[in-house]
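Data card: per-record layout.
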Amino acid sequence: MVELSTFGEGSDVMSYQPYDPDVPEVFAEIKSLILRGLPAVEVEHVGSTSIPGVGGRNVIDLAVLAPERDHGAVRASLQNIGFKPSPFPHYLPLLVATASRDGRDHPVLAYVVAPDSDVYAGWISFRDHMRTHPEDADGYDQVKRQAIADGHAEGEAYQVAKTPFILGVVDKIERSPGNK
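The structure for this 180-residue chain is written out next.
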């Protein structure tokens, strides 16, 4: 069973970690924990750990979906089960924790977003594209590996290093026949 603790305890987000096939089970347990306290929300696994085969910093990103009017209450409930406000600036409000399971730690970033938000739609579109296009998933893994090897494992530098690749995939998604 997964346990939540303070973000950063025991986790190594500064080195490249290959894809962890246990992450889907860890996510499922985190989701179950959240839904016990917040049965009216949806929880989606987003970010690179939601894409089989893609490594990186081994951070589990999750979107907690709720109408904007409920965001404050949802964040408070998440804090009651062990999430904490992010200690670093981010463009979206962010809660953090470390999920420990079977002696292994996984940093967790939780975003409370509206289900109809453009940000959420983009995350799901990117995730689903990568899951069905292994050549792009392999390319993303290589970009993340190189960014970390080049010393860009933290915050904005990590995002900037990945941006050209991500924008290329987003362009491909937008030009795909199903999106016109």
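Known properties of this structure: The longest helix spans residues 155-175. The two ends are 44 Å apart (CA to CA).

See the next section for split statistics.
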